[in-house]
């Protein structure tokens, strides 16, 4: 019975680690992916040695499968809490909502405004790049100022130049300067 519980717990630990390693690789965070990958391998080897030592039972197989499924769920929760990376929002408006645009810029979001022609009238599109951790605040502001906005979001893989990249480089340089002083 102890083996079944251990297998279950190992899977609950292993799968979230695997999830995070995969996400770090996709986000091009190789150093973090390497560290988490080494931890993943350690947990995996321990789990496999436990499963393969002795006779396997149906209980062990079920524990492995259930632990895997619950581990995926927990990995998803952890990833959502960490909110690694950036998201681009395309916000389509029926009117040129200056208050919304100014509020977003005041809150530090880089906003580019496009004017276009919809089926029935002119439309305005806001393009906003934000950290994933800032998504809830961004969505709240948009909802407050423009509840009928049509919003599409996606994760960009690469970006170069622009407002946000300059701000990130500035923060990175400040961080490096602080590290050098220590």
TrEMBL record:
Keywords: Cell membrane, Membrane, Transmembrane, Transmembrane helix
Residue ranges constituting the DUF2179 domain according to the UniProt record: 109-161
Cellular localisation: Cell membrane
Protein topology in the membrane: Multi-pass membrane protein
InterPro entries: DUF2179, DUF5698, UPF0316
Keyword Amino-acid biosynthesis: no
Segments crossing the lipid bilayer: 6-26, 33-52, 58-78
Record-level GO cellular component terms: plasma membrane
Domain DUF5698 as annotated: residue spans: 19-75
Family: Belongs to the UPF0316 family.
Protein name per Swiss-Prot or TrEMBL: UPF0316 protein Q75_02190
Annotated source species: Bacillus coahuilensis p1.1.43
